[in-house]
Amino acid sequence: MASVSHHLDVPESQPESSLSGNMYRWVSTVDHKRLGLLYAMAALLFFVIGGTQATLMRMQLAVPNNHLISPAMYNRLFTMHGTTMVFLVGMPLLAGFANYLVPLMIGARDMAFPRLNAFGFWVFLFGGLLLYYSYIGGGALYGSGSAPDVGWFANAPLTENAFSRGTSTDYWSLGILVSGLGSVASAINVIATVFSMRCPGMTLARMPIFVWLMLVDSWMILIALPPLSAAQIMLTLDRHVGARFFDTQAGGSALLWQHFFWIFGHPEVYILIFPAFGTVSEVIPVFSRKPIFGRQAVVAAAVAIGFISTSVWAHHMFAVGLSSVTNTFFAASTLLIAIPTGIKVFNWIATMYGGKLRFEVPMLFCCAFLFQFVVAGLTGVMLGVAPFNFQLHDSYFVVGHFHFTLVGGFIFGMFAGIYYWFPKATGRMLGQQAGRWHFWLFCIGFNLTFLPMHVMGFLGMPRRIYTYAPGRGWEVWNMMASIGVAFQIVGLLFFFYNVIRSLRSGPLAGDDPWDAWTLEWSTTSPPPEYNFETIPVVRSSRPLWDLKHPNDPDWRYG
Amino acid sequence: MAYTASPPLDATTAATEWKPPDRGTVGIASFIVAETALFAIFVAAYLFYLGKSLNGPYPRDVLTVPVTATICLLSSSGTIVMAERALQRHQTGPFRLWWMLTTALAAIFLVMTGMEWWKLIRHDHLTVSTNCFGSTYYGLVGLHASHVIVGLFFLTLVLLVSFRGFPITTQERRIKLLSWYWHFVDAVWVVVFTVVYVIGR
Amino acid sequence: MAPAILSLLQIGLLQAALLQGTAAKSGERRITNIFEPFATPAAAERDIGLFVMLITAAIFVAVCALLISTMIRFRRKPEDDERQEPPQVYGSNQIEIAWTFIPLLIIFVLIGVTARVIAVVQGANPGPAPVRARIIGHQWWFEVQFPELGVATANEIHVPVAGSSGPATMFQLESVDVIHSFWVPQLAGKLDMVPNRANTLWIDPTEPGTYLGNCAEYCGTQHANMLLRVTVEPKDEFLAWAAAQKASINVNTQDVEGRQVFESLSCVNCHAVRGTPANGKFGPDLTHVGSRQTIASGMIPNTPQNLRAWVNDAQEMKPGVLMPNMKLTKQELDSVVSYLVSLK
After folding, report:
1. Predicted structure pTM score
2. ipTM over 0.90 threshold
3. How far apart are CA B47 and CA B45, in angstroms?
4. CATH number for the domain whose boundaries are B23-199
5. Which residues of chain A does C89 touch, with a Cβ-Cβ cutoff of 8 Å?
6. Nearest CA in chain A to C120
7. A175, A197, A219 — which closes off a domain?
């Protein structure tokens, strides 16, 4: 990386190339790009851990009455898998993309609060490590070394002292509380950056869609994460000073926890999908060679999703016995949220319509994203119909549904983003051939794993079971799902191979390998620490288009 | 749009016309939004458990309306505004006076909350583990009190640095952010007061 | 859409598996397909399920057709000029309005249908004089009581055939510890069993047989093996079953030696056998354990060998279960098992 002698954060005394010097620069960095990469690397590390946990679970469930994994261990696996994937993969990937891209896309030299940014990352990492320390230090009923086993939703009163002895649940509660602090810090930072750091001419109306979505996303984080923190504080008070918030044996309510958790939990799934929405909204136009269709509609739909997402939470609770009026209200709000989501999908397809589609790897991931996200959205509609939900709730159908949103949607979107922005961050292209192998194997494996889960749900297979008896019609589907995992693993191996090979000897990317239109492509790859030599001035939402087509600039059309 | 007809915008004119909002203001406003969500859940828990305690003591038996403490805290919002105005006029003396008053009022509030808790614990035997009322009461009032403590820490810090000769008039922007936080703590108290001492009794 | 297509695919497989399952154990329906209901709630849920699947499948097909045709038609062709960009289209308000309002209409239809079916499932009247049962969730078994009939048992619920020949059955669902969920897919959608709360659910099964179900809310270590079965039988058989289950055991005609051993052990701290000093409430009532089809909350068939293995070391069969290893001697084990087998 180019040395920047006038920057105060890098002590001059550190030799450029020594390992300790490099380490020091990464650990002490307040540069949004380095922090973004740190977030992404931490997320990939936890992704491998969470994926390993999932693989173990699929091995256990491949055949009925399997004795590979004990029930206690299985319960810890799915708890840690869910918690890891949501809080230690989803949230940091989101923060990583936001950190890396938002300042570059709005023509800023850093985030609004660089030190708060570093604080957010290290607090998040500490929370994650605290959670994983439970494997070593978490005392439980049967001795020490026990990860939490209460599910990522940690329903009361299963988490109370009476049913969860030892300290494993505390690691869940405190680890996530701490990492949540980091998420809120980074959300505040994104909002302040977007409002205050935009380059001249970058009005809100001209901001890239990705930046808009990260802005709405950060708002959702501000509103959704503190309720989880509050509930976790209450839970900790219950467990350690004898408070009665969720203690059903002393008049506490079991359902209150669920309300609080899902007030966080449902906006959370939109929080996770938004970076994918944003990425797709950037990648599809560039590879279709057309501007996004209906910019305002796409942004307005995101804002609408943000609003409606705060009032759909009880659709996770249709089966707890709420009144029919409550169930009807939440079914209605849940179905309504399909509208803005559908608008987005239509706009993406309309962006492709009439374009010149280049099916390079980022675009392949975007296309798979579209198909899979449509499935996820429609199974979501099915789940939103409360009476059908009485059957489908907590069955494998739900597992299939949300993996279609979070893997088929979020992870595919993030892979599109990684292939798209990797050249910007490293200066080198990822291999096309290995990328295609990665895409096809991962896509096939993903569908092979998660499509059968919908059928398992139709056949009455409940979630979170460590084993099942033969003869109930579940075997063949479970076997299919487990085989799919192997494809996914090989696909991911291609990805990691691709990344390592490209870092060493990938073809140089140049500033603008995709012939794209947003500001991050106007600087070098990788960008210097100060991002832009001169702060750019923009006049439309596609400043580089204006530059490349001086005779037909975007700003003519508003 | 307007730009279609106007001449291209160059960097120099842009720099003078382009005034995005202050990042500190946006940051503190976002922080307040997050804090509001945090308090909302504790308020919801308090309201949810009203009248649901299986055993006493109940709110109407033990809670007395903290009139003096409330007056102290709410008037501290006024005094901090006065301090800010003094700072805008670069009058360090009046600023210190008003700031000291604010700090004192905050401290009085905190002491009175402590005395209330002392009475509840020692005399009424209401602790966090007595019943749902105890849990939610100490949870909500305690969360607010912890925010007062944080506020008091920063108020005191400003007071100390200003008395040690730090040119506090250069910190107008940061003082403004702190006062926003303090107004938020006061506003939350209005909600807590209404929920705990008006509706809850 | 894909799940819908898959559900069509599964029918053939299902039929084969169903026949197989039925052959294996007469009357026991092992394939709990939610699209094959045998009571009003499950039927109402199936109907709305098929309705919404039809709509979503139509949307899926339409969107996919659009997407695929777009991908094929507008892919970059080798003969295309690299530098020639396609026409830059920024959007169209008419189109945006169209694809906002058409889905909105569909969603309003769905909301209306949903509201109606919620009323059917949650608010409907199960008819006159239903049979009432209390089902109480424990970690990890279902306590079953018919208060009006004096029946107390576990994990296996018998109910009369409803309709013209008999009344519906009303369940009151409760829990003594954590949240569980009552789910017998072919009879009714799930309803949670929440501590400090009583939820009610009714069924009016029309077809005799045994219907399998599971606990459907994660409730701790052995959630997976918290199974239940509902046996639907003609009203007279049901009443005979209830009368037999109600009776206390005859202390004198039972296996006296086994009973004495059983009562001398700490079994009685958790288990009740009505008519004897054993009156524990923590574990399942064993008064008529010999008459049940399964033990270990539906996990294994109730055979003397299984029973013996279970009493010998429940932890081995079902790790984490709250029944401890009593470390019985071989003789104690023999006596206890023969006593339990005799409790018909």
Report:
1. 0.93
2. yes
3. 6
4. 1.20.120.80
5. 290-291, 293, 354
6. A387
7. A197
